[in-house]
Fold:
Amino acid sequence: MIPNVLSIAGSDPSGGAGIQADLKTFGALGCYGMAVITALTAQNTQGVSGVHVPPAAFAAAQIDSIFADVRVDAVKIGMLASGEIVEAVASRLRAHHARNIVLDPVLVATSGDSLGAPDVVDAMKRHLIPLAEVVTPNVPEAMRLADSHEDPADAEALEALARTLHGLRARAVLVKGGHLAGDLAPDVLFDGARVSTFTAARIDTRNTHGTGCTLSSAIAAHLARGLTLRDAVAAAKAYLTGALAASSELSVGSGAGHGPVHHFHNL
Structure:
């Protein structure tokens, strides 16, 4: 049976990140994708120029409509633009006993643009992080959630961040090391009992738009297919590495920004 996976995130009209990247990833990994749109953005490979946020009640209504009719095997959560939306999403997922929730705390875009109101971080800590099977911040997002001001330099520092975030009642935390210097890109997973490091060779490319969305969506897809969390992370990391390596096959954007990864490289 084909798994059903729901993305709750913002829309990227250029197709490289957000809902569009999530749906591509779900399809590439053999899942049926669904989407609850929490924000409309005006963006391209060079940056975000505008954000329109629908009412939180409408996000809640979208979630209710899905769960009233469709079996949901996993949920990926991306951009939530306000604390009110965070609370609404958490409330509805809790009410519907949602499982296999992957929280990608989208706070900063690849371009460096800030995403989300100031109250989002506190709302995530209180309402969403305890619901998630795994939280998948990149380094800037992990530092913001942990209220840390010291840039991590290696995998050991990523582990320290993961342990700090686990203290926020997270079941498991995957801190992504793409922002670190060096030839390798380590991601560190801590589930409260065990530390696992997933390392891949760094791909020399500017086509990194939507990498966080893609990785978290791939983890959700593999959890929906029945993999354990560690196996899901390993498979998702391999999928993203392949998508980065094949990104030169695409011709999207002017080249002045960050192009998308190739979501269908495996087909």
